[in-house]
Amino acid sequence: MDHYSAVHMAANAARATAELCALGGSLPERAAVLASELASNVVKHAKDGALYLQKSPDGTGVQIIAVDRGPGMADPALCMADGYTSTGTLGSGLGAVQRIADELTIRSRPGEGTLVCARLSAPGTRRVNGPGLGALLMPAQGEEESGDHWAMVRTEDTRTFAVIDGLGHGSTAAEASRAAVGIFLGAGELPLPELLESLHVGLRRTRGAAVALLRQRPGSVEHCGVGNVRVALTTPDGTVRRMAPRPGVVGWNLPAPYVERIDAPAGSSVVVHTDGVGDAWARNPSPATLRLPAPLLAAALAHGHRLSRDDATVLVSGTTKGSS
Ligand SMILES: [Mn+2]
């Protein structure tokens, strides 16, 4: 695709996504400008680049993620000053992106590429994403609808997540995972084993699903999962600790729910993904990858390890000292 049509398509898709996310006024147009600036950088300078346009994790707006393996920027802050041009024009346009976005997270490494997450929120919405929450959901190639879903219930210092992979893919899988989200949102403060039992009862008439439930508090994380949704805790010093689910299918055969609770040091992140993302990343990840802010770690895993024949969801929730 030529440069002009790729950028044009990105702008149109961003405008449409913003409208779907119920953003009004000038926001769809601002989303279009964000997407065209980011797409333009990817098309001009990068290889293996992509733009992901989705609802922000807290549902208050739209997020635009740009991923590439291009030349990278030595100094993203400098590139944001309008008028700055590096060799070529990599980074020009980022000044506009910074002015327009409500929240902007960028990491770039010369020779490796650039990750950008720009978010726009509806006016007056309490922004709860923060850089501490990242999520990407991608339907299998050729499917309109994802059979994966995820949801979050928050209280003051606790985040509870459900990540659901409806069996198979397409609309019947989506039916199971949507039902699970509905039940979860109404019961998200229950102890995790009871929550899993409720999901099991509620999914009996569906195809069933793999489900990971996580409860994240300052200093700790609990996991209760059945079926193949992968969960790991990553720390800034480069360790990855996996938390194992029980085999089974929620809605069909539920093993006795088992809760694993582990300490989560400050700066660690909970990483959850369905099997539409390969788990090879967890074997030998670079420390630079594990230090990425949550929205960008989600993007790097989703873009770099996606298996396009299945629905794919990646959720990353960071921890900060004493806060959620
Ligand atoms: Mn799957």
UniProtKB/TrEMBL annotation:
Q: Which Gene3D superfamilies match?
A: Histidine kinase-like ATPase, C-terminal domain (3.30.565.10), PPM-type phosphatase domain (3.60.40.10)
**SUPFAM superfamilies documented for this protein:** ATPase domain of HSP90 chaperone/DNA topoisomerase II/histidine kinase, PP2C-like
UniProt domain PPM-type phosphatase: residue ranges:
130-319
Question: Under which name does UniProt file this protein?
Answer: SpoIIE family protein phosphatase
What species is given as this protein's source?
Streptomyces mesophilus
Question: Which lineage?
Answer: Bacteria, Bacillati, Actinomycetota, Actinomycetes, Kitasatosporales
